[in-house]
Amino acid sequence: MDSHYMIMEKSKVQIAQQLLDENLISEKEFVDVKAYESLKIFSLHNELLFLLYLAVLLFTTGAGILIYDNIDTIGHTVIMALLLIATGVSFYFSFKNSTGFSRNETDFENPVFNYLVLAATLLSGIFIGYFEFQYQVLGSAFVALLTAFVGFASAYYFDNRSALSIGITGLSAAIGISATPQALMHGEFYDNPALFYYGIALGILLLLWTEYSEKTDFKKHFSMVFLTFALHLICICCLTGMADYYWPLYALFLSASVVYFYWKSHKIQAVSIFIFVLLYGYIGLNIVLFKMLQAADSSAFFEFLLIFSPIYFIGSIFLFIRSIKQFNRKKYKSLP
After folding, report:
1. Transmembrane region positions (predicted)?
2. Which of 3, 64, 226, 328 has a Cα at 20 to 30 A from 39?
């Protein structure tokens, strides 16, 4: 057994010991945990699923590269026919093995079909994009909306979170938000302030849909996906907008967003949301402090800041780690 596994095993036993000391589990349950860990069982389930996910991404990426490199040799009609056949076959077997639509969480009997749904969704997006590239009859916004529709339909019918991510990404692209390296390098996102409003508006819509889904018990297990996208959309747009003349408005909205997501992370016990809330809030706070220092324009104050800054950043790191530890401690205490 390697050292990494020893550390993981020790951590699990220590957690069980801590739960026992706090009377959250019984002595018998603690003994069962130690006995299970002593078996040294290693599951390949997650590793195999990851390889399947990687295989789907490599296959769809390879299909795109193949189309690009052999466009003149194969021909447009043949390429679109092959894409359409591959997409149709993938959706056919997905529908055939699906349990049907349900408002609650469902799953395939064989998890392989989840990745077949992902492949079908990606292939359909490639087909739609290639069709538009070749004939240019739909428009980029409509292509993005159509891709988003396929993603949302696949996500809600087959209960697939990966397809849901594709749907939200397509919806973001439809309003003009692009996070591609080319767009960032050319400053396309920063040169269009209207995108800040669109991104914040889309983030709010995702939050409203999340609250509605949770209250009506309609695929409420999708909440984590919606919250993650909404968090990044709203906070990134606010932080970027704080470089604008109306930065105080963005700062106020960022503050309100941080408070909401901080409360939400505790409510659903999502450590990833909590960590990003701290990061975005910390970055926003530093931008506000920098703006205030610029307005003060005092050389003596800047000299004091240079001396004080190491203590400030070290203290920030300490508080960041301490907050995460406290969050995890509360999370374990709340476990049934």
Report:
1. 48-68, 74-93, 113-131, 137-157, 164-183, 195-212, 224-242, 248-263, 270-289, 301-321
2. 328
